[in-house]
Amino acid sequence: MTNGIPFSDALGNYTPQRFREPSNDPTKTRDLLEQFHPDYMPDSMTTLKVGPNQGDVCHKQLADVLQSDARIEEADLAGANTVETDILVVGGGGAGCAAALTAARKGAKVILATKLRLGDSNTVMAEGGIQSSVEKGDTPQMHYDDTVKGGHHYVDKPLAAQMVMDGPDVIRWLIQQGMQFDVDKYGDLLTRRAGGTSAPRVVYYRDYTGLEMMRVLREALTNAGIEVWDYNPTVELLSNDQGHCAGAVVSSLKNCSYTLVKAKAVILATGGIGRMHLNGFPTSNHFGATGDGLVMAYRMGAKLRDLDSFQYHPSGLAYPQHLAGTLITEGVRSAGAYLLNGHGDRFVDELGPRDHVAAAILRECEEGRGVQANETTSGVWLDTPGVELRNPGILKSRFPKLLQLGRKCGTDPAQEPLLIYPTLHYQNGGVVIDGNGCSTVRGLYCIGEVCGGIHGKNRLMGNSLLDIISFGRRAGEHAATEVLGRPHSNVSTEHLSELRRQLTLADMPMENQGPMLFPDYAKFETDSDYDGLHKAK
Amino acid sequence: MSETSEQLVNLTINSKPINAPGSLSVIQALWHAGYPRVKSVGCLEGVCGSCRVMVRRADSHELKMELGCQLLVEEGMEVIFLVFPNPTHHTYQLEDIKNSWEVQDQFHQIFPEADHCRHCGGCDKSCPKGIEIERGVDLASKGRFGEAGELFVECVMCNFCMTACPELIAPNHVGLFSRRVTAYFHIRPSNLINRLEMLRKGDLQITQ
Ligand SMILES: Cc1cc2nc3c(=O)[nH]c(=O)nc-3n(C[C@H](O)[C@H](O)[C@H](O)COP(=O)(O)OP(=O)(O)OC[C@H]3O[C@@H](n4cnc5c(N)ncnc54)[C@H](O)[C@@H]3O)c2cc1C
Ligand code: SF4
Ligand code: SF4
Ligand code: FES
């Protein structure tokens, strides 16, 4: 798209104003979404041809990896080391840490293997906070109702009910691990309101809720003597004679070799898909968010859901390039920031639902009213100087992180508006689980962003940090009890032979290998440092 | 910010000559130049502390520690990616501290080196977040954990200060200890406790 208004012209025409006419655009959400929201782009979706969700609608790029060939052959594993543990946790974000800590404290032997370092995750990046109904005017019922409504009624109701009831105890547990929250002068938890909720319910620590959570959980975990394998991405699960999950194949980026981990239970906590850059979108997600867990679970036979539903956050930074996709918190719009197109006009109710606002921004850019920064980048203005004009000092006092971001862009958000564009933010769907985090495959637990159902087709701000701890603790506890006295079983990659048979029968191309592990621009596949982990094509 | 920032600059990253637009971070510049880079990449947003680099700028002999995802390329810069150091030898469990009267005593048993701070300022100089680390260590050794912890709000646990400290104090872990004991012993929100009580008594139910 290069049809927008040139950046310098648009900026030249811009002056901050106290008031601008609200948009009177009558377009209905449904029509707007159908025309402009990426989830509705007809050629972005396909139907799955093999596996437990055969016949279901799925995003094309995701379908490509779900139906890809495995990265390993039986032969790759011939000389591999074998290690035994009660429980293998895959993924070192908030969900994985909560599960590992809980299981280890119950007496299970736990190994946590993660792709990057422990804590390099989406969790560490969360700013806004975590939902828990603690205020007088609020109840778990209201929290539940908001969650179901927010998820467009596609929510797995028992899971949502259990999660909101866990809310207060999740906060207590986090405090017991040593996590701080912002409190008032009497020591009560402060709360703020998330979009689409009926009461202030988000508890938080500054703009750094995820950072505070992650450094505390990491410290708790390493001090609990849990074995942590960093730079050890899991590339496949292992099955036993009955088709249950009985371990995993872990690849070490440190010595370029595979290890077979025999485990009585595997807990997958691999997070989201932002770095798949669906439809070419930038993302707010960390480097390791490439949907690996979905692929591995699907091959083992686990049922997935809502594979056509993703959250695009309206305010990702569009420019400069090195920061594209970086999240700007919804709070700036809550504080009254307008969204302006290249003509300086408002074009949407800034506080509408996230999917509606994102679609409206895409419409402005597509129809030539966006601001064109260079050949490939367009966006709309987030009118931060206007907010500052109406409330002098507000940016400094309430949005220090935004000002810091401005410094990195070489602009002062109090003087100049920021160029924004929707950013791929969250995977709404994922693995189907029950209240203990059990998938439809025995021995395989899934927790956190890799799961689906809890948030239906749209997640509310603050509900994800709650879900990862609530289900993380439950899965850790359940798995630790289940594995007691259970022997290890024989492991094999039998399910991969089945996968290849099905792919061949369905006439699927076999060139692609999954899971992805890293986005293509990191050039993992051609990096000679990792030759030992590349499959001969 | 404008279209003109696309000027190319020359620099070296891990001794490889690189030519990249000035709007890129050093991680992106490596990728842009076609070099692979998998390790030392995490959040790409300055909060995970993975992307540790050492930099020398064209106009200076000084070596600076920075986060590679936050550092923009400049003409004549030399950048080296650093591996992550081994974890600290300090270990403790909050549950082993029986009550808040014992925190200071326990602290000195867990972090015996903290008292030996040379006030060399090495930690402060190495911190990409500008944290007053030396002062934090001093406050913690005097038992002022609340104040000490406040200084480490923005700490991303990149461990630069740990590597810099000649006394092996592990100042970032001192900071995190200070923060954790403050939460563990002193955060007792009555609104939360009241809600937990109501839940315990079964006063709050959900109709689906
Ligand atoms: C910028 C940003 C802001 C957010 N703000 C909020 C907020 O305010 N409130 C809220 O509730 N939610 C927020 N979210 C969402 C929330 O942070 C995440 O959904 C949640 O933290 C996911 O936790 P997780 O443990 O499931 O996954 P993650 O924290 O992403 O952890 C997954 C881990 O698995 C590892 N991994 C991936 N693949 C493999 C593999 N093959 N082998 C081994 N390990 C692997 C990853 O590297 C990572 O360490 C935000 C998200 C982002 C990106
Ligand atoms: S205090 Fe230490 S670990 Fe924390 S950000 Fe500064 S240098 Fe890094
Ligand atoms: S580097 Fe170590 S010894 Fe030097 S001031 Fe910092 S804490 Fe003290
Ligand atoms: S990649 Fe996380 S701080 Fe740079």
Question: Could you explain the architecture of this structure?
Answer:
The complex is a heterodimer of chains A (537) and B (208). By secondary structure, chain A is an alpha/beta fold. Helix content of chain A is 30%, strand content 18%. Among the domains of chain A are: 5-36 and 317-424, Flavocytochrome C3, Chain A, domain 1, CATH 3.90.700; 74-123 and 212-309 and 428-483, 3-Layer(bba) Sandwich (FAD/NAD(P)-binding domain). In chain A, strands 5, 6, 9, 10, 11, 12 and 20 form a seven-stranded mixed β-sheet that branches. In chain A, strands 1, 14, 15, 16, 17 and 18 form a six-stranded mixed β-sheet that branches. The two termini of chain A are 36 Å apart. The model of chain A has no long low-confidence stretch (mean pLDDT 94). In chain B, helix 4 (133-141) runs antiparallel to helix 5, helix 4 packs across helix 7 and helix 5 (145-151) crosses helix 7. The longest helix of chain B has 16 residues, at 171-186. Chain B contains eight helices and five strands. Chain B has helices spanning 26-32, 103-110, 122-126, 133-141, 145-151, 160-164, 171-186, 190-200, and strands spanning 8-13, 16-21, 52-56, 63-67, 78-81. A five-stranded mixed β-sheet of chain B has the order 2-1-5-3-4, with helices on one face. Chains A and B meet through helix 1, helix 5, helix 6 and helix 7 of A and helix 7 and helix 8 of B. One iron/sulfur cluster binds at residues 126-127, 129, 131, 133, 155-161, 172 of chain B.
Quick summary of this structure?
The complex is a heterodimer of chains A (537) and B (208). With 537 residues, chain A is an alpha/beta fold. Chain A has 15 helices and 21 strands.
